[in-house]
Each structure stands twice: as C-alpha cells, then as structure tokens.
Amino acid sequence: MTSLFTAKGEAAVASASKKNLDLKKIYIRLKEGESKRVRVLGVTENTVREYMSQGDFNIGIFTQPDISPILGGPSPLTIASNSGIEKFEKLYPKKRYLMVFADLDTPEGESPLRVWDCSKAQGVAMQNLWKEYDESKDDVAFTLKRTGDKTETVFHLLPIMKLKPEDKGKFEALEGIEVPEDFLDNVLIPRTEAQQIELLEKAGFPVKDYFGATKVNTEEEETEEEETEEIGKDETENF
Fold this sequence. Notes:
Elements: E1 5-8, H1 9-14, H2 23-26, E2 35-40, E3 48-56, E4 61-65, H3 68-71, H4 76-81, E5 94-103, E6 113-119, H5 120-132, E7 141-147, E8 154-160, H6 165-173, H7 183-187, H8 193-202, H9 207-211, H10 219-228
Antiparallel strand pairs: 1-3, 2-5, 2-7, 3-4, 3-5, 5-6, 7-8
C-alpha cells in the first residue's frame, strides 16, 4: 500500500480504522495560552512521521496531505502551484510532522493517544526536546503549551516537577503504552483528487483549462470531506 509518509522515527528527524477514530479528540488543537498535560513516548517509527503537506489558508485551502504518492503523479494542488498563476504558487508541497503523545487527562474508557500536527521547524525542535528528555521521559510528565498567535506561535514542552498522587497514578498507568503501527496512517486523512479540484475551483483556479470537466464528488467523498474539515486548519496555527 502506498504511504503518504516520507520518513519514520529517527529517519524523520534526519530529513484502528478511519471511520472508528474520533479525530476531533485525537488531534491536539491548542488555542493561545492553552496547554495539555502529556507523557512523552520517545522517537520511534510509530510516534513520529514526516509527510508532505499542501495548502494556503489565504485562499481557503487548508493544510492537507500531498496525494501525489497515491496518484503516481502530481496532485491537483501541485499542478496549480506550478501553473504560473501567482495566487496559487504557495500550494507547493512542504514537510510537516505528526507526533504522538499520551494524554494524562484522558476520560475513562478512551484511548490516551493524541496526535500533534506541526510544521517542519516545530517538528524538528520538538523531536530535539524529546531526545533531550529521553532519559527522564519515564519519570517526568510534561505540559505541552502554546503561546503566541499565527506566525508568532510557539509550542513549549515544560517538565512537571511534582504531580499530585492521583495525577502520578494517571502517569504511571500510561507506562508501556503502545502505538499501533497503523495508528498514524489512519489519522492522516487526505482529500481525494476530485475534492482537491473542487477546492481549487472554489478558490478561483481555472480548473477546466487544466483538468477538463469538473469532477463531481460522490456521496461518500462528501462525507469524508466533512470528517476531515477539523484537520484542515489554518496552517499558521502550528507555526
């Protein structure tokens, strides 16, 4: 099966079913000043993945995976970025990372695995912090905190020096938690080729000149679009 990821685990530092996953809960979305208490799991092939993304929130096309590996050729967004039309030139593929944390405050009965989707610079910086704290990750919980807004956004990983007894129990309960091999594959949801063309058309791209007759989404594709809308956030939120 063709994967959208370009690298895993250490290689990424150097360079359940989709229908059953609640992506609104799984993805970490912090507003300015918000934070989440987490357990760091360390850099492995199943906790860190690099992928190529495309999007430009200024024209209403939010961040999404580059589907070129699936198509075996350039995606519609890539074609638009290479069209010479200035408005669409920022749609070229860019590196992003998915990183998995364990949530200390997970409601009972839910999986504690949480995914942070971040820019290349943020992903490399966070992985360096994970390596710095690697020897203490099994003894210390952390706070993932967001400060700033848009392009001034910064994410901090702050050690929690002392936990309350009940919180210490939550931390210890996460010991040895495993991330399924296909977990990140199942939470990275691409748009289809037809959906990308539709997004381009809405943004004013001359799709008929480049793709012929506009493709119409099927009912299933429209449902998938609704499910992925929460993932396709303003790209600057994770800068």
